[in-house]
Amino acid sequence: MSFARFLPARRVTVAALVLASLLAGFAGPLPAAPHESVTVRTWSLPSKRGNSPAEIAGYRIRERFEELHPHIRLEATTSLQIEGHVQDAAPLMAIAGGTSPDILTVNFRQSDTYVSQGFLAPLDEYIAELSREVLDERIPESVRPVVHRRGPDGQMHYYMMPSQVGAKTLMYRRDLFAAAGLDPDRPPRNWEELREMAVKIADPSRGIYGVGFLTGTHGAWSMFNYLVSAGASAMIQIPNGEWRAAFDSDEAVTAYEFVDELQKMEVTKGGRIGPVAYRGADFTAKWIDGKVAMQFVTLGGAQLGGTDFNPQLIGVAPVPLGPTGKASSEVNCGMHAIFAGQKDKRVRDAAWAYIRFTDSPEARRIYTETMVEQGAARNLRPKWLITHGFPELADLANPGLEAAFERALRSGTPEPYGKNCQYVYTYMTKPMEELFYMDLKALSPGARRAKIKEVLARYVHEANERMIGILPEPVRKKRNSVAWIVAAIALASFGWLIRQVFRWINEGLPKSSDPVSGYKNRMAVMLIAPSLLLILMWQYYPLLRGSLMAFQQYNILGGSVWVGINNFADVLYDPRFWHSLKNALYFCALWMLMGFLPPMFLAVMLQEIPLGKILFRVLFYLPHLISGIVIFFMWRGIYDPLPDGILNKIIGFVGIPPQKWLQDPDLALFCVVFPPAWAHLGAGCIIYLAALKGIPDDLYEAADMDGASFFNKLRYIVFPYLKPLIVINAVGATIYGFKSADAVLAMTGGGPKDATQVIGYEIWQRSFLYLQFGQGTAMAWILGVLLLAFTAYQLRILNKVEFRTTGK
Amino acid sequence: MPVISKVGRSSPGARFTFVLMYTFLALGSVTMIWPFLMMLASSISSEADISDYRVVPRFLRDDSALLARFLNDKYKNLISTVQETYRFDLLRIDVRTGTVKDMLDKLRYREKLADPAQRKFLAEYDEFLAKDIPVDLYEATHYWSYGLIGPMVKSYQDWIEAKYGTIARVNKAYTEQYTYWAEITPPSERIGFRDWAPFYHERYREFIEFKKTLPAWLRGPFDGGYKWVSHLKYASDGDIAKLNAKLGTTHEDYWAVPLPLTAPGEPRLRALWEDFVRRKWPLRLIELNEQGVREYRAHLEARRKSIDRLNELYDSNYKSFEEIILPRGEQWQGVRQSDFIDFLVGEKTDLPGLNIANLSLRTTSGEFREWLLARHGGTIEGINSALGTKFSRADEILIPQGLSEWKEITTNRGQWRWHFVKWNYFEIVSFLLTKGRAFSNTVIYILLMIVIHLTINPLCAYALSRFNLSYAYKVLLFLLATMAFPAEVTMIPNFLLLRDLGLLNSFYALVLPGMANGFSIFLLKGFFDTLPKELYEAAQLDGAGELRMFYQITVPLCKPVFAYIALITFTGAYGAFLFALTVCQDPKMWTIMVWLYDLNATSPEHIKVAALTVAMIPTLIVFVSCQRVIMRGIVLPQLQ
Fold it and tell me: How far apart (Å, rounded) are the C-alpha atoms in residues A16 and A10?
């Protein structure tokens, strides 16, 4: 240290010691000695507050663990539960923000993202502790490939530990079977029987359906069982470890064909014709209501069935056999893993100890005993009851439950878990939807299969390109050069804009500026500096950093890879991008029509009417007081697609047949635009109203003298006076219309059939849901360039006008 | 001034225009008000009527809807308990389809209440229910989950508060870590479950004390009817004709088949009943006669061999097998319970079992019969002559629990309506009150934002406008230019920057990124440019400094703009939740909006709507009281 020589030697030592001890205090805890306690943080922890039997059991297991490991302190990390997609995003944000807990909860869909981004620490050394039997018990054969896989280092590792594996099996309503004259003890054994029974049970006159399918972006989830029973796979891993979408095999065609046939079948009963299969996003609600006779339900781990699982009403059966005599169903479970960001070996060990204990034989015993003691024995898996000393309670359970579960587990196929496979249902849903709206009846069986295969192959191709990013080298090169050209144009445009704006502003510059005195200059710098620095730091710096991300394969934990122009090239050649841009254009046009124009007319009306101005003004302003998200939720309720939904009832008065609203691809975008436009009407009109008030009275008086008509006055007095305001609002509305994503996020999530997939939502989805920040940012840049003209025009107008408030 | 002149107003054309306009405005207003009212209506609804979509909720006018609400709250939508109470196959509680209304029509409760004999009988029952019903035969109802409270839990919390006085004492007594009274929940009971037994020892004992203080409407007696009917349905495939054929009876429906409390003589019924009792009846509600207890002891002796071994397993200290009595209370757990189950089920044939004749069941109806008999001379005739009823056999006397609830609802209609109107709001407010810092976080955040927005941007604008700087426009351009770039690009880097600076989970994170705003500076500069220069020159002559001039000249002259900025800042900060959550993931830093969103994600629909309604109140107050500010502060562009 250079300043040391000014100090006597002894003082330096003392000062250094003091400094060191102070620093130690700030630098965080020193590596803990072995006997000291370690804290392990996890997403959720059973608490004493719980009242349900399962919660009490969970808490007892935790208590026992703490008793056995007095040096381990468990701590829960609270996180907000956000509806919809954002739910997957919250843990990712925590990882990004460095607030991630040590024990992570991972699902199959996201497992590849977690593994490939290096979020998970390999568990191999820990797994090695387990005996063969324990391993087989805790990681069933069907789940093994999910948890044991190739990591970013190219080696095979165990990354996750399943907890309470669940599998799907067939549940059926005994009452509906009986009502249709079928034997309630004889569920369908194969697809043929399933179809026959569904037809027998369906009764349009009473709103009863034989089977059901989900619609929406993840609709294919409800046909996954058919797909794997036919022997097909959603995705496969080729020998070099890469993933491929594979739902266009012959087996897959069989499954799609069967499902499509089932979805289109109709029966006539009680004088009414209607479908055999229910299709809708609220399919589960229909099942609970007893309107759907058969459903595939996940039986989860220790608890088979729900709390209101009534054996008299609901029968359980193995999954029906497919045409090749094979049956398979979805296997799924939550998985625990250790966060790779946690480098402290002792914390990792402690985390593993807890993961291991939560599903250990002792934990299972505590669980079973507590459930029995709490009177919830009949929800337990019969096998556990028998193992843990309550055989007499086991026969209270649903007959066939254990057998169906065992079989489902053994023959099960894990939910897709490959690269970016959170997308896979989306891609599998599209052909399902497309086929549904296609008339295949006229085709011969062979032609029909060929047609289906063609549709499937198209989406498999799209999935491979988009999800996996498979692209031959020459194509890549060609695309990149196009992207460079586009990027050059973009850059040039931005340069032009900046120059242009400079020019405009210079035009408005006051020619004579007094020389500024030193005091004034200092004062000015003092006053301007805070804003300047803040904007530099919070807008320019992130902009720069964000722009760099557009050229990276961005990894939130570090280790991002430069990919050059690839992201731009991918985006430019991505049909989804263009599709969402087209939708955004349509959205924008609708918004101009519904969001931009009406407030002007409303303002004129409010200005004209002799009575009730204030009253109407307040009434139209009301929706503005409800916050955005509430409006969307409210309208989602109003757009109830059921025949007796609110809006359908209202249009029924005028004799219009019921509509599907948000579920109708032709109507959906219109329905999405309407609520924000509606909410904006009152607030939007106030500004015009204020401007109208500012028109000098003598202009009207002069016009009256000349005998001008109402519309003439609007045309020659009002319009010119309002023009700057109108233009500014028009440009603002256009930009909003292009970027808007919130309404889509809250109401449709991009569906149905991507009809509402707008560009703003696409960017958000790619960045935050799929962590493809690079592509998201690249898209945002392209959008920025496309809107450049508008932004430039907006800046120009802003420069030309001056602003005044109404009250002065 | 209106476009249509005063003179022109009475012309037919103008009148027609006005009619058109009013029609438009009226229609528009309806679409504005109606969803608003819908929301208000939904905010006082429950699961039972949330989907009814009526501006005036039906429970305010219709007693059957009121009962539906009552049932939904009281029995947590556990339809089996409602079926048992009303002895009716009610499939779901739904006001929209009028299921409860249909039930009431079929049960003819209105006529029953008009009958004096029924009324006397009901009065007797009400007395029994309020005072003399055994404490292990009823549950404390109105139990709420989802972190919500409900009237019973609320009165439990009040009771605990009265008993202990401070949270610290509660925590000591129950070894808990509560921070608020509203966190305390009572232990739950599942009387109708076969093998349920209480778990929390000290707490449960005290809870029993509390249970005895409950008013009748919070008591849910167990009568076993649903279990019995389910058993019968299961045995006869849900077809009453099959059951009648099997038993040789002529019952109209399942609910008409009486539940025998001791083994019936008729062999076919007896077989059905025995199976029911041995496998399904709640263990704690079985009583053994002397012979039965002897059989129990014999079973234990044969199974456990020595009393020492038994004491070890039971954690008891019996001297001999002769001392053993039926388990009581919490002892219905563990090995004791599984031994009793084996004894009862009798599958272990090598051990002495139980003769079904030595056992009897306890139900509320059974206890009520005894109670009535004891009051009225010990005979059915005594009861009939005192009350005017026409019972011919004791097992015809069933507790009129449903009728009692119906009477409660219809006699105290106003109170109940008011209760349902206010309850959801009560839930929201107590939820927020338990979230300690939610209020202070929100207030601090909003105040900080307002103060910052009223200083940093205006001062910068002032400097740009006042000093005739040669570089003023360059600065302005620099501040404005970010508008041209897509906002999405900066979202993630902003977050990462906060993280790298270690500012996440603090007010810095909430405030810093939005402190300066180029557009706002641009606007303000425009305003300041229009102020008369002479004022400043005069002030300068008086020796005023720049800051003083800013506060004494600029601010007063631009009051409307400043007020408007404050207002906009308020709404922005108050309504922010996704941003506020992203940068502050620690619940200690959550604002009201984030908590409400959290509540929103975990609670049922009607609570959500109520939460959103509550969230609207501050905005509503501010906007209504600032009507003038809004109208005066609107910023209008004009051509120069």
Answer: 10
Q: Which residues of B touch A374 (CB under 8 A)?
A: 190, 193, 196, 199
What pLDDT score does B251 carry? 93
A19 — pLDDT class (breaks 50, 70, 90): very low
Closest to A801 (Cβ–Cβ): which among B21, B504, B638? B638
Mean pLDDT, chain B, as a whole number?
86
Partner-chain contact A805 B527, CB within 8 Å: yes
Predicted confidence (pLDDT) per residue in B441-492, tens digit: 999 999 999 999 999 999 999 998 888 777 777 788 788 777 766 676 777 7
**The one-letter amino acid at A361:** P
Alpha carbons A657 and A774: distance in angstroms, whole number: 46
Residue numbers in A near B228 (CB within 8 A): none
Angle at A627 between CA A621 and CA A632, to 5 degrees: 100
Residue A297's DSSP bridge partners are A169
Q: Is A728 on the interface with B (CB under 8 A)?
A: yes
Residue A21 has pLDDT above 60, yes or no: no
Q: What mean pLDDT value characterizes chain A?
A: 80
Percent of chain B with pLDDT over 90: 39
* Facing residue for B493 by CB, picked from A545, A687, A728: A545
| B467 to A509: CB separation less than 8 angstroms, yes or no | no
Among A622, A620, A618, residue whose Cα is nearest residue A630: A622
How crowded is residue B259: how many other Cβ atoms within 10 Å of its Cβ?
22
Which among A78, A704, A797 is the nearest to B587, CB-wise? A78
pLDDT tens-digit map of A624-647: 777 666 677 778 778 878 777 778
Calpha distance A433→B579 (Å, rounded): 36
Contact A175 B238 (CB under 8 A): yes
The length of chain B is: 640
| 3-class secondary structure, A771 | coil
Please tell me which residue of chain A has the smallest CA distance to B608: A630
Q: Do B633 and A806 touch (CB under 8 A)?
A: yes
Is there a contact between A690 and B636 if contact means CB atoms under 8 Å apart? yes
Distance CA A668, CA A750 (A): 10
User: Which residues are CB-contacts of B179 (< 8 A; sequence separation ≥ 6)?
Assistant: B167, B434, B436
Given CB atoms, is A712 within the 8 Å cutoff of chain B?
A: no
Who among B32, B514, B561 is closest to A805 (CB)? B561
pLDDT digits (tens, 9 = 90+) for B550-575: 888 888 888 888 888 888 888 888 88
Q: What is the pTM of this model?
A: 0.72
Compute the radius of gyration of chain B from its Cα atoms: 36
